[in-house]
TrEMBL record:
<dbReference type="InterPro" id="IPR003462">
    <property type="entry name" value="ODC_Mu_crystall"/>
</dbReference>
<dbReference type="Pfam" id="PF02423">
    <property type="entry name" value="OCD_Mu_crystall"/>
</dbReference>
<dbReference type="InterPro" id="IPR036291">
    <property type="entry name" value="NAD(P)-bd_dom_sf"/>
</dbReference>
<dbReference type="InterPro" id="IPR023401">
    <property type="entry name" value="ODC_N"/>
</dbReference>
<dbReference type="GO" id="GO:0008473">
    <property type="term" value="F:ornithine cyclodeaminase activity"/>
</dbReference>
<protein>
    <submittedName>
        <fullName>Ornithine cyclodeaminase</fullName>
        <ecNumber>4.3.1.12</ecNumber>
    </submittedName>
</protein>
<keyword id="KW-0456">Lyase</keyword>
Amino acid sequence: MTVHPPKNINIVPFVSVDNMMKLVLSIGIETFLSELAGFIEEDFRRWELFDKTPRVASHSAEGVIELMPTSDGEIYGFKYVNGHPKNTRTGLQTVTGIGMLSNVENGYPVLLSEMTILTALRTAATSALAAKYLAPEGADCMAIIGNGAQAEFQAMAFKSLLNVTRLRLYDIDPAATDKCARNLEGQGFDISRCTSAEAAVEGAHIITTVTADKQYATILTDNMVGSGIHINAVGGDCPGKTELHPDILLRSDIFVEYPPQTRIEGEIQQLSKDHPVTELWRVISGELAGRRDAGQTTLFDSVGFATEDFSALRYIRSKLPGTVYFDQLDMLADPDDPRDLFGMLRRAKDVA
Ligand SMILES: NC(=O)c1ccc[n+]([C@@H]2O[C@H](COP(=O)([O-])OP(=O)(O)OC[C@H]3O[C@@H](n4cnc5c(N)ncnc54)[C@H](O)[C@@H]3O)[C@@H](O)[C@H]2O)c1
């Protein structure tokens, strides 16, 4: 008996930038971030199921291009992403991305999506999710150092998941801070624009560093970080690209996504290879403690891991049915007779 594959298996749903924006706005940014954080949390809870590997990075003098694959055994996913800190000087984004999900059983892609906006959302959702377990109780004031493309997403995720409503913004470029403050107007924040990183961290319970510079930068020095603070270090995510002075790391409890990748790319690249760190999934699954007391300095050394992109694509896929926020992409050559690929090509002449 001939087994027929599902109809239209050659057609892959594609979420363009335009449709991603419409989808996010139709759901509502805060709802989207909290639902997305739920998917990321769920996948951290089934961490051991996933195929894991540090991302495959191709470095150049100006930046990095990376592939981030993973699979839960049923669905395979990967993201293509770049990081080019000098891009904004020529009007380009520092980070852009696209991603795909496939069916493990037959290898056929089932979703293709823009991931520039989705990366900003998933990075912010992951940061806020980590902070849910690590930030001091009642934290409602956050410093954001680096007010570029990712900054507002971080603010919105922390509001959505932790009810952070007071923001202290700083960027070496005041125009970036102006842009950030303007974009967050009317979103329920009390916003202070600060003229230095030192001023920004004053009174903050959470410090987010989200700068872009391809060097060992020192955005925070040890004396700037009081005890009990939670640091969400997002911008140090490449070999030779960090944001924190090593002394801060030495007195913080450090939480990471996937140690083999973070030891190459994160703040902890500045420490010995065996410096103790806690895997975030073990905290989320309840195996290990997150924040234990009010005096502890906690650090989420975020670099971005493939499972978070997988979760984000899985979330998007779950939201598409019944909406108009995707295109049908004729992406896979799928002849009726699977061995007649050449025949399909020849016959195309008759319809051309
Ligand atoms: N951890 C993750 O999962 C993850 C995900 C996405 C992006 N990132 C990283 O986050 C960083 C920010 O990304 P983006 O898209 O917002 O970049 P961006 O270029 O749009 O913004 C970066 C901002 O940092 C500011 N800046 C640079 N040096 C500074 C300093 N010393 N003090 C204060 N501000 C400074 C710049 O003026 C700019 O406004 C990048 O390094 C990127 O690689 C990490």
